[in-house]
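Supplementary Methods, section 5.1.

A reviewer requested that the exact input to the structure prediction be made available. We therefore reproduce it here, unchanged from the version used in the analyses.
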Amino acid sequence: GRFVDVILFFTSILFIPLFFFFMLQKSESINLLILSVVPPIIREDVAHFLHIFHDTMSTWVAGQGTVIILLSILYLTGLSLIGIPYAVTLGVVTGLLYIIPVAGPLIGLCLSSITTIASSGIQSLAMVEVLILYIAIQTLESMILSPYLIGNKLGLDLPSSLLVILIGGGLMGGLGVLIAIPTASLLKKLAIYIQRKQSEAWICD
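The structure derived from this sequence is encoded token-by-token as follows.
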């Protein structure tokens, strides 16, 4: 039962970006539907919030896709240079597994390790090279790729991106790591909008 729960949890995380991707394709009709039922007095604020939400999530989904492509290229190139069988398949699979926080790279490492052991033996130098490769690329992803390609585009600098990822992971585990940056960006933009509205109201008074 617990094994099934773990599989369902990782599956649900995998479908989160896909859900937002397809939802964004229908964003115009969804926005019109929402605005049609809200009171006119708050319609402008709700429309602005929907615009912020759409902009944030579309940037996040595009950033996730870019990181996945870059990771796939890095992994398949590294595995090919080491001489691991099925390097292209393993590299692409590991890149796609990035969408599952923490556990995704570990699953990719396990698959590559099993393939390396089956072809070269557990005591081969290739096993050490695979381990170093995964550690290096994972460090590059967490310290540079995700903060720069996702965090910066969402208005968060590198220290802020790392901080919110740590907070999200501490509060909600893998799911928190996945949604930490877009959530922080959305809250920041809303705070700026509310502060601006309050300033405008104070000027009018």
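DSSP finds seven helices and no strands in the chain. These observations are discussed further in the main text.
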